[in-house]
Specification:
- The protein is α/β, with parallel strands linked by helices and 255 residues long.
- It has one domain: 2-enoyl-CoA Hydratase, Chain A, domain 1.
- It has 10 helices and 9 strands.
- Helix 2 packs antiparallel against helix 9 and helix 4 packs antiparallel against helix 5.
- The relative contact order is 0.13.
Length: 255
């Protein structure tokens, strides 16, 4: 299954695992399946944590590049942003569990969670600028998580950064050896959320998410419009995507 949902015996924790070869790309189908899975969790009274992870060695390479050509992007981008908004409405704490590479749209998905926990060898980056575009949701989410300076550097340089750097920036909650990551997450859940009132957690996440939800509701539609109506009408945005698909260096026209 592209998206698998499992629960612990007491149904206090839900685990969503998404899968797409190669690299767990966030295709339109995966986005829709994840969104549907989140809606299925809306009325579980005892839920105390939802984790999201990519199957295999990497969390996600990001969005599907072919779907970022002009014919598809107007459908895919709003759907992806709707998924991130749905994550901010989940009535329980959420955590991205990251191994390997967490790039582009995958990093945006993780940033929409309340927590990110990762392996020590994980890397996080926003390489969209190398394709002649930029990450719309990260433009809103990352400054709130890491501060304006770090967000600007990550978005404008496109350089991936190791887990240790993002941990130091306060973006990651926990970092563990990859072999110990699952046990680390289990122990973290057992000593924190499993002991709490599910109702208290529901109300607390509503409260702590107010700044980020307000920013997403206020700013993301404007940035999405800029992306679709300004950026995607430029020659370089289309050239960057086509060059990637054709496995060649882009020939920028600077317009």
């Amino acid at each position: 299954m592209p998206v698998d949902i499992s629960f612990n015996p007491s149904r206090t924790r839900a685990s969503l695992v998404f899968s797409h070869d190669p690299g767990n790309l966030l295709t339109g189908e995966i986005v829709a399946r994840l969104h549907a899975a989140l809606e299925d969790l809306a009325n579980l009274p005892h839920l105390r944590l939802v984790t999201i992870e990519g199957a295999g060695p990497d969390f996600s390479f990001g969005a599907s590049i072919p779907e970022h050509l002009p014919d598809d992007i107007g459908r895919v981008l709003p759907a992806t942003h709707a998924l991130l908004s749905a994550l901010l409405d989940v009535p329980a704490p959420t955590a991205a569990v990251v191994r390997g590479r967490c790039l582009g749209g995958g990093f945006e998905l993780a940033l929409a969670c309340d927590f990110i926990v990762s392996s020590e060898t994980a890397t996080f980056g926003l390489p969209e600028i190398t394709l002649g575009v930029f990450p719309p949701a990260a433009s809103v989410l990352l400054p709130l998580r890491a501060g304006t300076s770090r967000a600007t550097s990550a978005i404008l340089t496109g350089e991936p950064r190791p887990a240790a750097e993002w941990r130091a920036a306060g973006v990651l909650e926990l970092v563990a050896p990859e072999a110990d990551l699952r046990v680390t997450v289990d122990d973290w859940f057992a000593r924190t959320f499993e002991r709490r009132s599910a109702e208290a957690l529901r109300q607390a996440v509503r409260a702590v998410r107010v700044p980020i939800r307000d920013a997403v509701a206020r700013d993301l539609p404007k940035i999405e419009q800029l992306y679709l109506e300004d950026l995607m009408r430029t020659a370089d945005a289309v050239e960057g995507v086509r060059a990637f698909l054709e496995k060649r260096q882009p020939q920028w026209k600077d317009k």
